[in-house]
Amino acid sequence: MIPELGIELPVLLSAVVALLVLLKFHQWIRVWSNLPPMPVRPYPIVGHFPYLKGDIREKMLGFRKTTGDIFSMYFGGTLVVVLSSYEILTEALIKQADAFSARPLDGPIAVVGYTEGILGSTGQQWKENRTVTLSVFKKFGMGNNILAEKILEELKFYLDKLVSLKGEPSYIGNMTSCAISNVICNIVVGRRFEYDDSEYGKFIETSDRIMRMLGGGFLHQWYPKLKYLPGDFFKAKALIQVDKQFMDGMRNFIERVIREEQDGSNKDNLISEYLNEMRKRQETGKQTELSMKSLERVVFELMIAGIETTASGFLWFSLYMLHNPQVQRKIYEEIVSEIGTNRAPTLEDKSRLKYTNAAIAESLRLASLVPWAGFHRCSSETVIQGYTIPKDTMVLPSLDSVLLDEAIWGDPRNFRPERFLKDGELVIPQHFVSFSMGRRFCIGAKLAKLEMFLFVASVIQKFEILPAEPGSLPPRQYRMGATCPPQPFRLRLVERCV
């Protein structure tokens, strides 16, 4: 007891604690009361996850219709603000890029400790690694004939593989991933791999598993400590193990290149260029974020993203051709008219094949391969559209909301290449955000666009894409993950008679 007050000490301490909690609660309400609205009340602990069962993409688009273009959600116990219109994405990612370009400190990346490289990093780490990687890409001919020649070299192997199928019903997903991956491998490690290489096949399969497990809908990504529980009910340990397998492969690539660099047999690759730049900065005493660990992640990102986006994009294109044979006919007629059938398409043909480019753009738009532009972090308290976004809040930009917006496209669920043509000329509007926007714009966009053009034009010139079974079309359904490729389907590639 405190005699002067006539109050027991435990009672006084309880009152002080209650007062402090009340003051903190009042402060929290004052700061957070101006958050964007929530579509529905969250559940304790799991937040809005129960509302996302089923087709998560359609659920999120539905929340936009009922709540508005900017809304709040709880992924587990983590607040996430979803940005869902071109205007709001422009406001956040371009006009207020300083506040909205950082990556989160927790969430999906916390499970594997992914903070190096480019995709998962922030600040000087991100800026320096991105700048060096882009400079190497430019050296290797990003967007010009040097890189186009590397793609055309790989296309010869890919087309031969397709010929070997003899027009029989086939699944071409794995061989397509191998072909696209070989283009990246040629740049990153200075070599290609055979399609029937079993170790290389495991590498491709592992990359697909990682992308499926990094989709954002697994509880272990929002409660990283679940990995310490016995067993692996929440698949946290599985993700860590798959990531370790892939990273071990990256280290083997790097070690091999270093050995080949030392004996002079292989110096023309991204790994060597990165290491040379890192050594220069270290030898001059210049502070640098370039490191072996960052290099491993940069290689990881280029391999994973390069395989997934372009290979999946080509598979979606093939699926849309099955559903729209009249479009395939028009593409072939344009190729015959502008190029003929006696030589392969080249980079110089790109500007002439306007309808082909329109069909490629339409397939990327409708597929919306990357529904969300990765989790961003608000690095300072910011106001957008009149709402307050607290410092360190996770922000999720919805690319689906732009690419599938009726107000922009009119009939966004229909496959219609003509929307990208005006008076016979190719017109790509600003709303075409398949490669994201702002500072986090896809670093490999030019490479992906070039690959898509050369693969599409070369395959359509040589083959007709037909259903595996006449009159039976595979459904246009996707597999959820960090990217959304189509569900596996079979088709027939029949050589054209010329």
TrEMBL record:
GO MF annotations for this entry? heme binding; iron ion binding; oxidoreductase activity, acting on paired donors, with incorporation or reduction of molecular oxygen, reduced flavin or flavoprotein as one donor, and incorporation of one atom of oxygen; steroid hydroxylase activity
The family classification in the record reads: Belongs to the cytochrome P450 family.
Q: Which domain of life is it from?
A: Eukaryota
| Membrane spanning residue stretches | 7-29, 70-89, 298-322
Q: What is this protein called?
A: Cytochrome P450
Q: Do the record's keywords include Chloroplast?
A: no
**Residues that bind heme:** C442
Q: Which GO terms describe its cellular component?
A: cytoplasm
Q: Which cofactor does it need?
A: heme
Q: Tell me, what is an example of a GO biological process annotation in this record?
A: xenobiotic metabolic process
Q: Which UniProt keywords apply?
A: Heme, Iron, Membrane, Metal-binding, Monooxygenase, Oxidoreductase, Transmembrane, Transmembrane helix
